[in-house]
Amino acid sequence: MTGIAQKQAVCWVVSDGRRGIENQALGLAEAVARLVPDTRLAIHTVHVTREGFVALPSSPAPDLWIGCGRVAIPLAAKHRRVFPQCYFVYVQDPRTRYRDFDLIVAPEHDRLRKSNAISMIGSPNRLSQSQFSNALAQFSEQLSEMPGARAAILVGGNSKRFKLDDRVTDYLIHRLHTLLDQDIKLMVTVSRRTPDASRRRLRKEFSDRDDVWFFDGEEKNPYFAFLAAADWIFVTEESTNMLVEAATTGKPVYALPLSGKAGKFAHLHARLEGWGAVRPYLGQLDRWTYARFAETDRVAAEVLERWQKRASSGQQRMPT
Questions:
Q1: Percent of the chain with pLDDT strictly greater than 90
Q2: H-assigned helices in the chain
Q3: For residue 28, what are the CA distances in angstroms to 98, 214, 252?
Q4: CA angle, 196 as apex, 192 and 197 as ends, to 5°?
Q5: Is the backbone of residue 122 left (phi > 0), alpha (psi -120 to 50) or beta?
Q6: Is the pTM of this model over 0.90?
């Protein structure tokens, strides 16, 4: 690589610390790190509260800055003044202050048209073969108690466009029972956005069954293990992150409907269906294959190329 020679470059991942937000920036940073030799990109997280308090890491100044979420936007302008040699990347559409970033990675369905913006289907994620292998090893004992065919059930919750209401919960419970009737073991996880009423009903219905692994936030998170160990993956349709992550596995993915209208997210759903990853579940399990969805890797290569181009001018540092 070109640029100022140094033993190790530093990347700051900036967010409010919420897992769904931070994982987008962190996933992109980790994908970039996989492309540089000998792990010469040190990644540190920076958390910003809604009140603006910033918890900075004990590390050298950043060479690469990747932010995601609203709280990261105003901090970018401040850090540009303090770290003028740093390369600034923002994940999602910042809506304003586009010039504060060297590169913006926006979801394709946002239709952002800026000279410093590139688009991707969905959003970056942290999934990799090493993540899957580590997760399978970590939860091997629990998985050994669930032999046979398995389905991962990823339950999201309310969003601006969708609602997980009582009617949808009835539907989910019915669908899960039809899978159990086919002797399919279930690995069910709910999220922070899952309404308490739905969470309680799902827990009451399935948590005591031997053929269901129900996870609702206690103990270590088996999410990656669920994805790695599943033969089929079911995802509630409102979660762009979980839909894209499921498609990254190359396994059959079924979208579960919620109340509401998809709006602009219908574009994402259509793209994933067109890719061959996602289908609606009509009560019949099918097996199919498709090319593993690798948008995070593609975008990481673009980030690295543009960062490298800037570094070649001598203005910024890169791992060498």
A1: 74
A2: 19-35, 72-82, 129-138, 140-144, 166-181, 196-206, 223-229, 240-248, 265-275, 295-312
A3: 19, 29, 24
A4: 145
A5: left
A6: no
